[in-house]
């Protein structure tokens, strides 16, 4: 994947939801985009574990950034599929995405969330529309 | 009469409102913090809304805590609307596994997102 340029960083800076949840972009090399989330109380469900919506948000976010970096244009989510494997309630989580299919108008990725001990927390796939000439 | 139901911290953090009559009602007044840089609603917001709506309905239906094990969401319209409402239908209950389907509607009645989810019922922590 091409190196993230300033436009991607600017996009993150101007993304209120990204900041509200507390995502951090910790690696943006050509080979990998790595997203980090430090779990805070605000993100927990009534069972005091990370809310399922946070996993979904994190997977979508890392996939979107990877695609915007690759295509250098806006993308929009069409479908997101998430499997939840283990609960998390403290520490840091990390998400990375992998491109499965690069089309002209659509792309498919898979992404996973692991914790500091590399335990697989959640895994998902996403289908995105490539918004060319936006 | 509408009765409030249990709310998580994440529920409050994103600004949801819920009530329960015979069914679980979930509403979301849109705020700027829920948007992406291009002004559209972050897909994670609708994913969260559907997870809450389906999970709470599954929980009420089985008198248990419903843990999400699978969630599939299709997004149809991410353009911002002032208010959203989510509805859930329980599709199947087999043992401890509940399958539900949920829809997020904009204030104009158009479908913004639709999901199917699987939840595992477990005892509610006291």
Automatic annotation (TrEMBL), chain B:
Domain of life according to the entry: Bacteria
InterPro entries found in the cross-reference section: HotDog_dom_sf, Thioestr_dom
Pfam families from the UniProt entry: 4HBT
Occurrences of domain Thioesterase (ranges): 39-112
Name of this chain's protein: PaaI family thioesterase
Lineage of origin: Bacteria, Bacillati, Bacillota, Bacilli, Bacillales
């Amino acid at each position: 994947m091409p190196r993230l340029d300033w436009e991607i960083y600017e996009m993150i800076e101007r993304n209120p939801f990204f900041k509200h949840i507390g995502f951090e972009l910790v690696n943006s090399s050509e080979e990998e985009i790595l997203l980090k989330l430090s779990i805070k109380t605000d993100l927990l469900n009534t069972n005091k574990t990370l809310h399922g919506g946070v996993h979904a948000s994190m997977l979508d976010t890392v996939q979107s950034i990877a695609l915007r970096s690759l295509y250098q244009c806006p993308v929009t989510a069409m479908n997101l599929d998430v499997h939840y494997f283990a609960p998390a309630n403290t520490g840091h989580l990390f998400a990375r995405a992998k491109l499965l299919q690069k089309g002209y108008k659509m792309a498919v990725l898979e992404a996973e969330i692991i914790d500091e001990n590399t335990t697989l927390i959640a895994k998902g796939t996403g289908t995105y529309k490539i918004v060319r000439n936006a | 009469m509408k009765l409030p139901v249990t709310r998580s911290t994440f529920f409050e953090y994103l600004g949801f409102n819920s009530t329960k009559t015979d069914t679980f009602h979930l509403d979301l007044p849109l705020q700027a913090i829920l948007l992406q840089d291009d002004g559209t609603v972050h897909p994670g917001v609708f994913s969260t809304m559907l997870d809450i709506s389906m999970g709470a309905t599954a929980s009420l239906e089985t008198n248990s805590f419903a843990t999400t094990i699978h969630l599939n969401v299709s997004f149809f319209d991410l353009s911002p609307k002032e208010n959203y409402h989510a509805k859930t239908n329980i599709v199947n209950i087999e043992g401890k596994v509940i399958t539900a389907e949920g829809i997020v509607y904009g204030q104009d009645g158009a479908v913004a997102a639709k999901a199917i989810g699987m939840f595992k019922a477990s005892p509610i922590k006291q």
